[in-house]
Amino acid sequence: MRAPHLAPVLPQRHFSRRRFVQAAVGGLALASAPGFAAGLLATPPARPLVFAHRGASALRPEHTLASYAKAILDGADYVEPDLVATRDGILVARHESNLIDTTDVARRPEFASRRGKKLVDGEWHEGWFVDDFTLAELKTLRAIERLPKVRTGNTLYDGQFQIPTWEEIIDFVAAQSAASGRVIGLVPELKSSTYFRDAGLALEDRFLSTMLAHEYTRRAPIEIQSFEVANLKYLREKLGRRANVRLMQLVVGGDIRPMDVAKAGGKLTFGQMTTPAGLREIAGYADVVAPPTRGVIPLGADQRLAQATSIVDDAHQAGLLLHTWTFRPENRFLAADFRDGNGENARNEAGSVAEMRRYIETGLDGFFSDDPGLGRLAAG
Fold first, then answer.
1. Contacts of 68 (CB under 8 A, 6+ apart)
2. Which pLDDT score, from 0 to 100, does residue 4 have?
3. 294, 143, 326: which is closest to 225 by C-alpha?
4. Each residue of 124-172: pLDDT tens digit?
5. Of 34, 138, 41, which is closest to residue 91 (Cα–Cα)?
6. End-to-end CA distance of the chain, in Å?
């Protein structure tokens, strides 16, 4: 999860506390999954849900079937596909429209002429863009590690995996659920909805048609995320209050506006959305509010954890669950309280678990982690 960078026009993650209704998926009861039980009145899950951020992205290249497989093996409750659209309108898993950091496209001479510059979510980007490629062309590319200097072990997998489609991910997770004997949720994010709508590739109906065509996603736990507002409201209108579906409003702080709000000339900011009154507004169309981790417990000037904010309690008072993003296991991403002396790029499992446990103490209901195995250890 990464906050959208919105250019100057935009001054720069409980089921409304409900539980899911018991259902069956391939003979598995949804009530057996953490946080799901019969009845509509919500109580928080017995332990926080662990969301595999782009899969087990600390251990395998992000948004590959290998990354999702590792996350499931390590005990994630949900796996996250970020969804974008190809030129021929197929949803695939990439964190952003630009392919330059996570595929080998820059080393493919046959696509050299496709390099370009585009305005995405208020910021100019240069590279190769998913909406300039058909699915068939995209399938000739291979995934690479986004952070090769930090996660050097992941570079061993460069070139091994294709970019999966939303449909392939559903099939894969359903198969893993059947093989493991447990229900595995999906937490898809619709990325840059305004950008893709303006490109004639609106994500929402494409997403719904695939989701509703599959038996697994008609029954298994699904949380649909967005940093935008209008698309979540549209999805609520289309989906209603389905027992297996939650909507997650992703937020950041300050005077940044959601992209769709800015494009429409609106004034609503994420800072306003995270006030008690703003959270009550979110509860009118979504079930979960999801701020960044430092919006739950900020860092002080010394980079150590400061006093927790009131956002967890405020969200619960508004009838929302609160999920936060994203915990990463390397020293460079940890609060100073939890770093060890092994260098900023070093993996620090003990520090990561300790940091997550400190956040869990605030009462949050779920969290995203690049290493869901450590997240599972922290959450219990």
1. 52, 55, 56, 79, 81, 169, 172, 173, 176
2. 54
3. 326
4. 999 999 999 999 999 999 999 999 999 999 999 999 999 999 999 999 9
5. 138
6. 23
